[in-house]
Specification:
Largest sheet: 5 strands, mixed
Distance between the termini: 30 Å
Number of strands: 22
Number of helices: 1
Shape: globular
Structural class: mainly beta
Radius of gyration: 19 Å
Length: about 375
């Protein structure tokens, strides 16, 4: 996920997870950890470094783009519009916005398309929704917990058969069943070479961490099939500040490779983005196919005054070619009280750069811009 769900010095979700050893479920699991390795050789195939810096007529990005919206997800649909959803500070509903332009999301009307249940499952901690179009239907993946057990967080799916996600009926397809009934969240889905995958964060029984990253094939948009493979677990110091966390995965396919970003550590100013990389021709269900960066690729920056950047996704600019990085961050380093109750993680966007070897160049989180002239 990547919301401020940290509860220091309380029996909160991460603290309770430490050392947990819950019974395994019926699904087969193939443990496999991607080890740090040297960077791959330069990819001889074309890469986007020749893309224009800015498409004519595209204004500079407004930042923060959307206030008090964490774990942002922006997708550009075939209708040419951008669709936005994110975690709200109250953790009690799922919202949507849309706009013809990225900057337009800042002031676009926001609709509540689903609310948490008053009792039972899907009643608390509504976190990190993602909107995906699959097989002619809309799906929203999100995390939630029962009202009666707010840290028993699992992954859930909504479905809407209407062509317009603001219309029609959102049907609750239920929980995505993983190998264990343990803390799980931050599901994202992508298709590659004819196969649909789910990647998510989950606590593995018996492991001394909070969450690792997992991948599995999907039988349909709400059902996993085949082995569930561990891709990454917190191992470097920068992944273990406050909590041992890998979460908030997202995929970008470019230059003959599959890039998988994720977020690590506690959700204060230590929160940062890591990167896994696989060759596009490799078996994505083989953990050995993935190379893990030994250093974070996107971190807090004092010079721009942005802290705790994370839970990112990617979209494209209005020109249809320029890659755009979407993430949340705070405008201050020190947090008063429990980070869970600090609402000021704002959605931000900036151009994603590319290095000569065809790997992404995240740069630093950009400074705030004025709203005027957007």
């Amino acid at each position: 996920m990547s919301r401020d769900h940290d509860l220091p010095d309380t029996p909160g979700r991460r603290t309770v997870l430490k050392g947990a050893a819950l019974a395994a479920g019926a699904l087969a699991v193939t443990p496999g950890l991607a080890q740090a390795a040297p960077a791959r050789a330069t990819d001889p195939r074309p890469h986007p470094e020749k893309r224009p810096e800015k498409h004519p007529g595209t204004p500079p990005y407004v930042n923060p783009l959307v206030l008090r919206r964490a774990d942002p997800h922006i997708t550009r649909h075939t209708d040419g519009r951008y669709y936005f959803t994110a975690t709200v500070p109250e953790y009690d509903r799922i919202v949507l916005r849309r706009s013809r332009t990225l900057n337009g999301l800042s002031t676009a009307a926001e609709s509540v398309i689903w609310r948490a249940h008053a009792t039972g499952p899907m009643g608390a901690h509504i976190w990190a929704p993602e909107l995906h179009r699959i097989g002619g239907k809309w799906y929203i993946y999100f995390a939630s917990a029962p009202v009666e057990d707010v840290w028993a967080i699992r992954i859930w799916v909504l479905e809407n058969a209407h062509s317009d996600p603001f219309k029609g009926t959102w049907v609750e397809r239920g929980q995505i069943k993983t190998a264990w009934e343990t803390f799980s969240l931050d599901a994202t889905t992508f298709q590659h070479r004819g196969t649909r995958y789910l990647v998510w964060a989950q606590h593995e029984p018996g492991m001394d961490n909070n969450t690792a990253l997992w991948i599995s094939e999907m039988a349909n948009p709400w059902t996993l099939t085949g082995p569930q493979v561990r891709l990454s677990t917190p191992e470097y110091d920068w992944e273990c500040v406050g909590y041992k966390v890998n979460e908030g995965p997202y995929v970008l396919k470019r230059n003959g490779r599959v890039f998988l970003t994720y977020s690590a550590s506690a959700t204060d100013w230590h929160y940062c983005v890591g990167l896994l990389t696989a060759d596009a021709r490799a078996d994505l269900l083989d953990a050995r196919s993935w190379t893990k960066s030994p250093v974070p690729v996107f971190t807090s920056d004092d010079s721009t005054g942005q802290y705790g950047p994370g839970h990112n996704c990617f979209t494209v600019a209005e020109d249809g070619r320029t890659d755009v990085l979407v993430y949340h961050a705070r405008q201050y380093k020190e947090i008063t009280g429990d980070p869970l109750h600090d609402p000021n993680r704002h959605t931000r966007i900036q151009k994603l750069g590319w290095k000569p070897d065809g790997t992404p160049d995240f740069g630093v989180p950009v400074a705030d811009t004025a709203k005027e002239g957007a």
